[in-house]
Amino acid sequence: MKTLKILMVLAIFYTYNASAQTSYIEDVKNFGYASGEGLACGASRYPTYELIARAYLVSAATSDKEQATGMYEYNSAKARAYMNKRRDGFLGCEEINTRFNNQKIFNSKLYKNGTLKLPDGKIVKPRGKYNPNNLYDRTENEKEKLDAYYNEVLKKKQLQAKKEGIYEKILKQEAKR
User: What is the reported pTM?
Assistant: First the structure.
């Protein structure tokens, strides 16, 4: 009977831990997607958003491994959102900027020690020593790097299309639009 109770408690703990980890990853993916659109559209509050989102990413992770996974997912979502926005010709950026700049995340408070108080009242404390300078470099030109990567991918796709003999067909279809 005791063994059964112990196993049930362990099962509940495991399930809770797995769902908490999924929630963290989903949160950082969502932060990344919003960040990519804000970057692509030139949202005025983008640097502040980036600082808060990265503070959450670092502080809410339960381990270094989870943080590394979170950072990968965040950056992947951010890059995908940026590329999608560029591909559609930055369509709807005015509306995106309005929504981006009015997000509730800007009601968060980030303290010097890395504690983050979210708009819903939730407090996230960092796991270890906190250095905001390691989180976000405002002088880094992310847009330039993503544009270079996008252009590189586009060239590879064009070369592949030429090899397959469909490049001319694509150009004709685009000219008709």
Answer: 0.69
